[in-house]
Automatic annotation (TrEMBL):
Cited Pfam families: PCuAC
Protein name as it appears in the record: Copper chaperone PCu(A)C
The organism's place on the tree of life at top rank: Bacteria
Organism: Mesorhizobium prunaredense
Organism lineage: Bacteria, Pseudomonadati, Pseudomonadota, Alphaproteobacteria, Hyphomicrobiales
Coiled coil ranges: none
Amino acid sequence: MSHTFRARLGRNSRFLRSFEERLGVTVLLLALLFVSAQAVFAHEFRVGDLEIVHPWSRATPPGAKVAGGYFTVTNTGSSPDRLLSISSDVSDRAELHEMGVKDGVMTMRPVSGGLEVPAGGKVALASGGYHLMFIGLKRQPKQGETFSAALTFEKAGTVTVEFAVEGMGETGGMHDHAN
């Protein structure tokens, strides 16, 4: 090999090594960004053996007095727990409701006695089934905002979660973990 060829190969070798190092650092940074973004989008809260995933609500039109609240709660423990109460500074009161169809008529009623979360199971609060009602809104939830609510469970205790406010026509979007 000629001296000139070896010199070029040496420079290219350094260039390739430098390029590979920069590429490796870039890939690592992108991976870290992806992982941290997943944590933000996952929107999860824990209390005791319970994991509350993606609490969300819809934006409300001006003058609306109620808003719904949705999330999934998973119980990784060996005994059942029960959601007993909800409170939020966005409304005068909050209630657990169940929607259903009886004799072809859609009904919605408050759930008394709380909602059981079975041991090793999960319960989805979703449109068309169990859900929260924030009654007597003190302000209109707007898309892109968040508001907090305290969920009190019989065994795990109380946890404050942040409800992400999505658009009026949304159904939980890509963040909906209810299924």
